[in-house]
Amino acid sequence: MTDDDMKSLEKAVKKAKRIASERASELHDLVEDRLPAAYEEIPAVAQATYEACRAWAEATAKLKAAEAAA
User: Is the dihedral of CA 55, 59, 60, 61 positive or negative?
Assistant: First the structure.
């Protein structure tokens, strides 16, 4: 794997972490500020947070695998 490939994986991890953090913040805001009135938003916000965290975990796993192979 080239240095550019590794940098690309590192960038993907950082981007995925940022997105996961943003989704987690949205979930936090929903819980802290808008419940119980906005209870119907829980499934969509929770699913988006889950998917973002899963994407981060997958990107992190790819990076670690590439680092181990290097």
Answer: positive
CATH code matching the domain that covers 3-69, chosen among 3.30.450, 1.10.287, 3.30.565, 1.10.3470: 1.10.287
Under DSSP, the state recorded for 39 is: G
Find out whether 19 and 52 touch, Cβ atoms under 8 Å: yes
Q: 0.85 exceeded by the pTM?
A: yes
Res. 70: pLDDT tops 90 = no
Domain edges within the chain: 3-69
pLDDT at 1: 80
If 0-12 CB within 10 Å is exposed, 13-18 middle and 19+ buried, where does residue 13 land?
buried
